[in-house]
Amino acid sequence: MRYSDTVMNHFMNPRNIGQLPDADGVGIIGSKECGDQIRVWIKVRHEKLEHVSHEVFGCPAAIAACSMMTELATELTLEKALALSDDDVAKALGGLPEAKYHCSNLAASALHKAVENYRTGKSKNANVVKITTLVNNTMPRPLRSEHGLAFWIEYAGRNILFDTGQTDALMYNADLLDIDLSKTDIIILSHGHYDHTGGFKAVLDAAPNAVVYLHPDAPKVRYSHPLGKPAKNVSMPSDACEKIAELVPKGNVFYTAKPTTISANLLVTGTIPRITEYEDTGGPFYLDKQRQQEDPLADDQALLLETAKGLVVILGCAHAGLINTLEYAGEITGKPIHAVIGGMHLRAASDKRMEKTIETLNKYNCEILAPCHCSGDLAVKLLQQKYPNRFLDIRNHLKITL
Ligand SMILES: [Zn+2]
Ligand SMILES: [Zn+2]
Ligand SMILES: [Zn+2]
Predict the structure, then answer these.
(1) Is the omega angle on the peptide bond into residue 60 within 30 degrees of 0, that is, cis?
(2) N or C: which terminal CB in the chain sees fewer CB atoms within 10 Å?
(3) Per the domain annotation, does 124 fall within a domain?
């Protein structure tokens, strides 16, 4: 039996050996025929394999195949990693002896297992979600309060920033709360309004490689224009729009008109269908200063985290309506709802909308209701009264672990 020079090189000096301490996925595969055992660890960043490592108990062919596989797989997207075959690895090694071909050449198969394991969230503690409120209308002192919203979410090894507040309160509060925004992996915008996008540029300056998810309508120019009052521009600030335009060529911007999976157990809804007759966009919103064209706020979307306990629904402003949002979350995931956290936009709700919303919430039987931002004092009070065991006051629980 003869091995190629490449096989001998990788056998004598195997690359990327040993367990990765904080691996996102692990794949284990054994061959009954010859007793080889292969373990592969992967570290994923922005849906690419940042590191791939291995340990092999087996023959030179198995060791060389794993070593070669780690070289071929590093920097691949998850899709490409899944397309990498055992044959590709054998080819890159200059071929393997026939006798060794099937039993030892399992490196790519072990890699596929690691990717699957990552996607199902089995290797991390997929149940744990840590949410920190960074910006809200009411924050305990000495943190700054403003009309705006931002949540820092730690989930499955990712740092996710959901919305960015209205001003530099985001950076100020993050600093006081010891949250390093330069470590942001993913930014998700619930919609384009200024109170959710004001800190966007500052975060991107601190974390230039973060990937961004937003609805294509989010950067639209729009106004809030109550009858008898002057129109107020409530669009995304121009520095945020410029930043997005800058990021597009880097491939770091993802538009989410439809439900979009970000990574394992993490998705955004995209436009939420309006099905209830009692929910409206909750304000005098227009696309022009003349009150001619209503703003449908199609960009309003929620973030959904699929945990073992059920869905965690993170709301920005819920312009689509709280019940519309929860209905759609259930429809696209088929999962029960465990927690609802964020702006519920009931501040200016009609009596009918308020009553129906509070009543209908009962049917989801979720364990946590944590209203904040634009939910409104009355809605908060009614939720607390009707659901005392589910109500969570975000002012006293800046950090929630689910
Ligand atoms: Zn809004
Ligand atoms: Zn709102
Ligand atoms: Zn808002």
Answers:
(1) no
(2) N
(3) no
